[in-house]
Amino acid sequence: MTKRNTGSPSASTPPAARQAGGPPLSAADCGLLLVRLAFGLFMAGHGSQKLFGLFGGHGVTATGKGFDALGYHPGKVFAVICGLSEFLGGLGLAVGLFTPLAAAALIGVMINAMATVTAAHGLWETGGGVEYGVCIAVVALAVAAIGPGRLALDRFFRWGAGGWPEAGFALGLGGLAAAVALNL
C-alpha cells in the first residue's frame, strides 16, 4: 500500500523544509503572530519601564528600591534581571526568536511576581491578584508548546516547531530560575 501525499508536512519533516515553499499562511500562523506580538510587546514595554523609565516607569534605581522592599537584595541587581527578562523575553516572544528561552524568561518573572506580590491578594487582578501573572505565564508556555508559527524567526530552527521538549524546557528553566531567585 502506498501512502498518499495529502500536501501537509509530516511531523518528521525538518521545520525549515516545512516552511520553504509550503502552503499559504494559515489563520493559525496569523493568530499566533497576533498573540506573540501583543503579549511580547507588552512585556517588552513592561521591562522598559523597569530598565529605562519608559512608558511611565520608574527606571532601575527606583525599581531597585521596590525590589529591596520585597526582600530581593541587592534590589537594583534584581531590578535589572527582572527588567531584562521582561524586555528580552518579550522581544523574543514577539519576533519568535529563541521562543522556548523567551518563554522561560517570562514564566520565571511571572512566578516570582505571583509568589512575592500578587498571591496574597487572591485570584483577580482587580484586587491585585494573580490573574495577570497566570495569563502571561500560560500564554508563554502555550507558545513554546505550539511553536511560534511560520511568521517567526525560529521557523528555521529545530525548536521552531514547538512540542513537549520545548514546553518542558520553558517551564523547567522558568521554574528553576524563579526558585533560585526566591531562595537567594
Please give a structural write-up.
The chain has 184 residues and is mostly helical. It is built from seven helices and no strands. It has helices spanning 15-19, 27-52, 59-69, 75-95, 99-118, 131-146, 164-182. Helix 2 (27-52) runs antiparallel to helix 4 (75-95). The longest helix is centred in the first third of the chain and has 26 residues, at 27-52. It is elongated and about 55 Å long. The chain starts with 14 loop residues before the first helix and ends with a helix. Residues 1-13 have low confidence and may be disordered.
Lay out the secondary structure.
Blueprint: H1 15-19, H2 27-52, H3 59-69, H4 75-95, H5 99-118, H6 131-146, H7 164-182
Helix pairs in contact: 2-3, 2-4, 2-6, 3-4, 4-5, 5-6, 5-7, 6-7
Notable characteristics:
184 residues; 7 helices; mainly alpha
Short account of what is shown:
This protein is mainly alpha-helical and 184 residues long. It has 7 helices and no strands.
Percent helix among the residues? 55-70%
Shape: elongated
* Mean pLDDT value: 90
Largest sheet: none
Structural class: mainly alpha
- Count every helix, treating DSSP H or I runs of 4 or more residues as helices: 7
Number of strands: 0
Order of helices and strands: HHHHHHH
Q: Could you give the distance between the termini?
A: 61 Å
**Poorly predicted ranges:** 1-13
Beta-strand residue fraction = under 5%
Radius of gyration: 18 Å
